[in-house]
Amino acid sequence: xxxxxxxxxxxxxxxxxxxxxxxxxxxxxxxxxxxxxxxxxxxxxxxxxxxxxxxxxxxxxxxxxxxxxxxxxxxxxxxxxxxxxxxxxxxxxxxxxxxxxxxxxxxxxxxxxxxxxxxxxxxxxxxxxxxxxxxxxxxxxxxxxxxxxxxxxxxxxxxxxxxxxxxxxxxxxxxxxxxxxxxxxxxxxxxxxxxxxxxxxxxxxxxxxxxxxxx
Length: 215
Hints:
The protein is mostly helical. It has helices spanning 3-14, 21-36, 50-70, 82-101, 124-127, 135-145, 150-153, 164-172, 177-184, 188-212; strands at 155-156, 159-163. The protein is 60% helix and 3% strand.
């Protein structure tokens, strides 16, 4: 099913009263169309085992489709395609929510804060309506380009190879803290503290970089 067909279904659902039989039928067709489109952009998580990834993906998709059916009126027909909307929500919100809830217990050893998330630089509802690359691709580009060289220069004391750039890219790829710890030879708690300090330092810089990218 192409973008125009999906858009028409979304509009048709919006044009029917909430809880009506007609809306439910159309929403069922919309969800089936999204699945059959073959264009669901599943988030990458190379540090995750295949079995765990399949479970996370299935639960995230289920949560996404419930959201779509309950909140179809939040889709802005004038701003972007249905697939852009659902793909950004899948990556930016639902997959990450499942991963956060089900994360390895070792993660509990790392202090949490509202900055302990690279993807928090942008609200999903602000970008889900735009025909843009996935947010993680934009954040990755900012980290890899590192125009001022700050991300690659900021490292843990006595561990020059443990840079913010390296750690952030691995987190973006879905690696668990224990995996990064074993790779870099740095304690999980030390990694977590360093990472959070860097996010506080570079958070606005990353946000500005993402916002300034030409989509």
